Every structure is written in C-alpha cells, then in structure tokens.
C-alpha cells in the first residue's frame, strides 16, 4: 500500500514540476499563439534571481534565512515579468501572426540570454548601459526635431559607431584599470548552488518511505499558481479582456479593448510564471546557463498534449506524462503482467530512464495521431487564426 | 526612392564597418606591443576546449589552469629561451567543431602541440585527425581507458588509477554491502560500469542494479525509486553521473532520506568545482575518487593553489583535471627541452616518455603507454566543500591502458617505446 502511494506521489511530483514549468508557456502559447523558445531562459533568470536573493539573505543568519524563499518567489516573478515585457516590446510585438519568425527570434534571444549570464560582468554591464544611454538617448532626443525623418539615416551613421566606440573604449579602460574585480563574471559558466532553507530539506516520513519536502513545496506552489491564474483569467476585468482578445482580436479592438496592452500584460504574466517555475526547479537541480534547456521540450509536450489554450488540458497532460514517466521508468506494470512472458520482457526493456523517455514520446506521438489538437481542443473557429 | 534607400543602407553598413575597424585598432594595439620585447620567436601551442555549450562549465577552468602554466613558464624564461604563445579555440561542446578546429590548429596555425578535450566523445572525434597528420595531443581528463594512441598523451587517470582502487577500497571498507551502479548514458559510464562489474565478479562483490540517465536530465525520480527497491537495507551507490544530473540526484536522495550512513556514494566525476555547484549540504560525507584534491598537503600543491588563486581570484578552487592540465604543459616543456626544439615531433614524442615531474599530486612519470603514473586518493566531502583525504596509495600507480578485468582486453598492453610492440600487444 505504501509502495503504491509512494509511486503515485513520485509520478505526481514529476508532473507538478512539468506543470509549473509549462504554466507560463501555456498562457503565452495558448492565449497569444506565440511559440516562445526563450521560455526556458526566463526560467533560468528566475533561478538566478533566487540565487542572488539567497546570497543577499545569507548574512542575516538562521531565522531570517529560512524566509528568503518567499522574497525570492516574488523577486523572480517581478524580474522575469519585466524581462518578458522587454522581450514583447522589443521583439515579439513585431512578429505577431508569424509563428515561424517568432520561433527563430525567440530562439536567438534564448541563446543571447544563455551567453549573457555566462559572461555578464561589471565591465559588460557598464559598457552596455553606456551604449544604451548614448545611442537611444541621442536618438530619442533627435526624434523630437521636426525634420527627424530626413536626418534619421545620418544620425544612425554617426551615432552608432560613435556610441559603440565610446562604450567599448570606456569599458576596456575600466577593465584595464581595475582588472579582476570588474572583468570577473558575476556567475560564470559554472553552475551555482541554491541552498534550500533548512525546513525544505529532508522529507515527510510515511511508513518506510519518505516524501521530500521540496517536492511537496513544488506541488503546493503549483496548486497556488493554477488557482491564481484561473482566478485572474476568469474573475478579473483584465482576465476578461485577455480572453476576449484571444477569441477575436479585431472585434475586441473595435469594442475599445487596448489589445497591445493586453498582449504585453499576458506576455509579462506568462514570463513571470516562468520565473516562479525557475525559482522552484532551482531546489531540484542546480542553477546554470543550461537550466532552462532541460525543461523546454517537456513543457512544450505538456502544452501540445493538453490542447492549446486550455488550462485544464495542461494540468491533465502534465500529470499524465509525469505518471507515465514514473510507471514506465520503474517497471511498475511488470509484476502485473509477469505471467505473460512477452509483455513482461517488453516492459522490462523499457524500464530505464533513457528508454522510458522514448516510450513516453512514442505514446505522445500515437496519441496525437488520434487527437491532433490535444486532449481538450479549443472550441470555435479562431484557434488557427 | 530605391536609390535613396540603397545609399542609406550603404552608409549604415559603411559606418558599422569603419567603426569596427576603429575599434580593432584601439583594442589590438596594446596586445601587439607586449609580445615584441621577448627574446626569440614564440612557440605556438594550441588550446582546444569547449568555451561554450554544455561542457564549458568544466572545460573553462581547465583552460585557466593551462594558461597559468604557460604564463609561469614564460615568466621563468620560456622554453629554450622562446616564449609560449597559446592559440585558443572553442570546440563549442560539439564534436564536429572539435574536428574542424583541430585541423585548423595543425594546418593553419602550425602549432607545436595541442592541449585539449574533456569528453571521450571529443577525444575520439579528433583522434583520426591527429593520427593522419601524425601530430601531438595532450589530454588531461580521467577516462574509461581501452585506448592507446601513438599521438595522444593521457595525463588524467586510467581506470586502474581511479575506478579500480576505489572499488577495492569500498569492498574493504563496506564488507558485504551490495553495489548499485548509476551513470550518465554515454561511453564513459557504460565502459566504467563494465569494468566495475567484471572486477566485482572477480573479487566477490555483488551488483544489484545498473541504471543510466540521459546526460543533462534532471528527471531522476524513477531511478531513485529503483535504487530504493533494489537496496531496501542500504548499500553502495557507485556514481558516474555527469553534470547537472548529479545535482538533481543528490538533492533527491537526501529528500528521500537516503543518507550517506546507509547509502554511501562513490563518485568519479565530482570534484571541487562540482561540489560548489551542487551544494555541500547535499554532498557532505559522500566519497569521490581522484588523483588530486585541493587539500593534498604537499609544497607543490600549496604553490599550485596559491598561484591559481592569485591569478583568478580567492573564491576559485582547483581540481584533478585542472591539475592534470597544468602539469601536462610542464611535461611537454621538459620533453621539448630534451628534444632540443619543438618542431621535430618524432623526437618530442620519444622524449616525452620517461619525463618526470614533481606534480601537486605527487611525483609523476610518463609511461611507455603514453599515460602517466600517479597517486590515487579517496576523499570524503567535508563541511567546507573540500575533500578530506581518507585513503591514498603509498606512491604512484602504474597506468594500464587495456583493462585487465574485461575479457576482450585481458592480457594486452601498450608500449610506444618499442616500435615492435606499439598500440596493443599480448603480454
């Protein structure tokens, strides 16, 4: 009995991690139709935020340190929501309705973000911010002139190399003067360690087995996030607007809904959820530039299997994939079919971590043959729009 | 309209190009100036590691160690009065790129030697290049053995210098406890586990399970559940997992209450850098087997640690592959000096065999099979993230390239000092 309970919990715990990671993606992909390949890197940013908050809390000592996780969750949400907002305003806004271009652009963004956390140092930050201040500052100053359109290309020609040159040389100069303190990367390519607070280590004793507190915490967090998202989408004014824009963008715009603001808000919330997921998975694995990549494929699987644009689909799909992963990986079905030699051999063959993944993917592919739109397809005509 | 647009584009392109030329001029002038003062033409050497991609985590610090050795040698007067100049290439954690870059280093840069690679996959990818061009590669990482190339010098541990002694020690320390083997799903862990199974069969140990997890996966729950089923009363977990999977694995077994008292783990891919990334609180009291730990208490080791921290910062740590990378530059330098110059590769290769060096891990010597003899140590992870050395061999262990437990290679050896014996001969 405990073994069964234990197994069920293990499966659900895999599923809840998947679900938490996929929740933000489900909103962005489902409601906006944007394939955001940078979702994993937003998770990574959330995980790094957790790492930074943890380091800020470390000097405070024992009783306070345990509470850093709450601050980290809020901070991770805010930081990644702002990142998402910048991403939407800077890149994705120009690519609505062109899924392939969005895919490529956001993939590029994900590579940039990965390299950014590897090499970010004070020198880089100073150089980049100097460039932004000089270039964008001057451009916005010039754009107030009435003849801006005429001098625009000349302004670009002069300002781009000028501000690049100044920023570059100032950064190199600072690097030469201060050496290691400014050129040393903040995080580096090396993974960093997020220490779970004392009350999250260990686990809940259940007979002979034990359930890790971190998994329980993630399970709880997932439930809170789902309830939060559901309430927001179905009980608030902005949630109503988001749903309206999802169903019919033109008509919503005619009725006075600010569709651009709705897009930005949706994307920011989706990104913020990625940050929370990042905070949570930092307690499972380590935090590194590749953190996000471990999850991106699985999260897309959850969204696709669940049915685009349906919260409940994502929930069921995540739990199903999680439990399937566990059941196949540990050969839980083996003893049941022990009397049939062929079947038991078959399950034993797939009963290791690598092959279980193969089997789960094969199941997903065959499932999509029968229900191409996922478990809970969106009703109506606007899905493909 | 079309003309105006073209001109505008042309102007932008032109300005960007001229800007970048200007930048090049600004940044490259100080570097150009520093090399000219030294005596003699510099000797070019290649450094080929992954500076980006999944392996960058490990390989970047190895490059740091190699550059430290080069810097020290240059400050002490270079090799035969000539400074060493490193050409650094990024293998991008991609084996095809490794092949390309190794060709480039040999053909275009005309380097005297290449220091590089971490994964066995990257080494196997560049091996044909080095053999066809009859060039030299120095390789710094412990590996699965079962290879002995004329063109490669292996300064990391062979299986009999890490895996086999650690299994012997476990058999001694934890009598009658069964083993469970966990590894990442690629060549090193699979070969390592084949060796361990053969060794345990020969020495009377038991293996109750063997599991592989995809490289980089954090989905360890099913494997941990299997370990619990197979070892309900505890046992030894022999761990050859690489990278991020380790973190998820150790966090999960702690959460499941499988502590080191009941489930001691022996790892062969966790060193000081990895402990920092995984977190000491998850690893305390677990074991790892290496030739070198930062805590090795010798004057050479202290000198190495101090020099490294002075160069790269106080919070940095050194580990076994970094130590092997550091000493291989010195071994090559000594060989070049004995050969009278870096250009006759045949002479350099012959001179490398037999080179001795007072390494941080103890005295080392290059054996005729192109591996080096070195001391083996078992470390227990302590509160400070460093290893407390609980066991060490009395002196250097002779390297064995072809494994003597595995049936296919039993009775074979490798000897490059005698052309008649070569890569694989029957003892």
UniProtKB/TrEMBL annotation, chain A:
Any one Gene Ontology biological process term?
amino acid transport
Classify the source by domain of life.
Answer: Bacteria
How does the record say this protein sits in the membrane? Multi-pass membrane protein
Query: What are the annotated GO cellular component locations?
Result: plasma membrane
Membrane spanning segments where? 12-35, 65-87, 99-116, 122-142, 154-175, 213-233, 300-326, 346-368
Can the keyword Glycosyltransferase be found in this entry's annotation?
A: no
Q: Which family does it belong to?
A: Belongs to the binding-protein-dependent transport system permease family. LivHM subfamily.
What CDD domains does the entry give? TM_PBP1_LivH_like
Instruction: Kindly state which keywords UniProt assigns to this record, in alphabetical order.
Output: Amino-acid transport, Cell membrane, Membrane, Transmembrane, Transmembrane helix, Transport
Where is this protein found? Cell membrane
Q: Would the keyword Transport be found if you checked this record's keyword annotation?
A: yes
The protein, known as: High-affinity branched-chain amino acid transport system permease protein LivH
MF term (GO), any: transmembrane transporter activity
Q: InterPro entries attached here?
A: ABC_transp_permease (IPR001851), ABC_UrtB_bac (IPR017779), BCAA_transport_permease (IPR052157)
TrEMBL record, chain B:
Q: What Gene3D superfamilies is this protein classified in? A: 3.40.50.2300
Looking at the Swiss-Prot or TrEMBL record, what is one Pfam family this protein matches? Peripla_BP_5
The record's InterPro entries line, in alphabetical order, gives: ABC_urea-bd_UrtA (IPR017777), Leu_Ile_Val-bd (IPR000709), Peripla_BP_I (IPR028082)
Coiled coil spans: none
GO biological process terms held by the UniProt record: amino acid transport
The cross-references to PANTHER family, in alphabetical order and at most eight, read: ALIPHATIC AMIDASE EXPRESSION-REGULATING PROTEIN (PTHR47628:SF1), PTHR47628
Instruction: From the Swiss-Prot or TrEMBL record, give the protein name.
Output: Aliphatic amidase expression-regulating protein
